[in-house]
């Protein structure tokens, strides 16, 4: 028998002057209410209720016990409410994983604002372009830049990024500007190590999708390195715009093959379970959505 539950049942019986009325209020069967009170009386070795065909009333011992039950249950409910309120306040250490380039360009500038709003949360950020195991490595939330974040994770879409073909003006002046996707086969290309397509770049354009087999002069596991190599005139890159916008804006890189790009890629915040989502995780993801990263 759960003593707290039995106390609540007993209080309901006293306040409603009967087992049936208490059962209806508690969404229980009358038999279940009767068993709870009987078990409570057996536990206390005391008769708590006078039972007649018309009504139920407490004995003198039952009246004293009722008063104590009301006080104790109120204190217990207040205790639970206070703990629950604390649990709703974001606090503790939030472990975050994010891709290196995106984390530097987009996430870094936002962290101070989050901490100002939620000062009880300590941030532990790890930047890595590899696919981490969130459970094994203990991350609360991760940023995934992908088309499919994976079936085993809960994902919230933050946005998407255009993926563009670019090269430096000096490279194009020396090697010519591609006029069609197949022209990329004769150019030096710079490839991203973790891209599933590898050296077969999928491009979408006016005539649909084509996959171009390119020659990668350089392959790297970080987009910043590829961008800087492209700016230096090393070759053509196919990278998301959050990496390219500054270099495109100041002319260090220019878009090539207008109308031909890779399919936009999604940016997701992912976590492992919907059940009992910690306030620190929920508040962080809501903050990222609010800021429009």
Task: Report on the architecture of this protein.
- A hairpin with a 4-residue loop joins strand 1 (49-51) and strand 2.
- The chain has helices spanning 3-16, 19-26, 30-44, 60-88, 100-107, 111-117, 134-137, 169-175, 223-231, 241-249, 279-291; strands spanning 49-51, 56-58, 92-98, 121-127, 141-146, 154-167, 188-192, 200-205, 208-213, 215-220, 236-240, 254-255, 262-271.
- The protein is rod-shaped, with a radius of gyration of 32 Å.
- The two termini are 53 Å apart.
- The chain is built from 11 helices and 13 strands.
- Strands 3, 4, 5, 6, 7, 10, 11, 12 and 13 form a 9-stranded mixed sheet that branches. A two-stranded antiparallel ribbon has the order 1-2.
- The model has no long low-confidence stretch (mean pLDDT 91).
- With 293 residues, the protein is α/β, with parallel strands linked by helices.
Q: Short summary of the structure?
A:
This protein has 293 residues and is of the alpha/beta class. It has eleven helices and 13 strands. 42% of the residues lie in helices and 27% in strands.
Mind summarizing the main beta sheet? 9 strands, mixed
State the helix count: 11
Q: Given the C-alpha coordinates, what overall shape results? A: rod-shaped
pLDDT averaged residue by residue: 91
Question: Could you tell me the radius of gyration in angstroms?
Answer: 32 Å
- Quantity of strands, as a count: 13
Instruction: Classify the secondary structure makeup into a structural class.
Output: alpha/beta
Pattern of helices and strands? HHHEEHEHHEHEEHEEEEHEHEEH
Strand content: 25-35%
Spatial gap, N to C terminus: 53 Å
- Residue share in helices? 40-55%
- Could you name the ranges where pLDDT drops below 50 across 5 or more consecutive residues? none
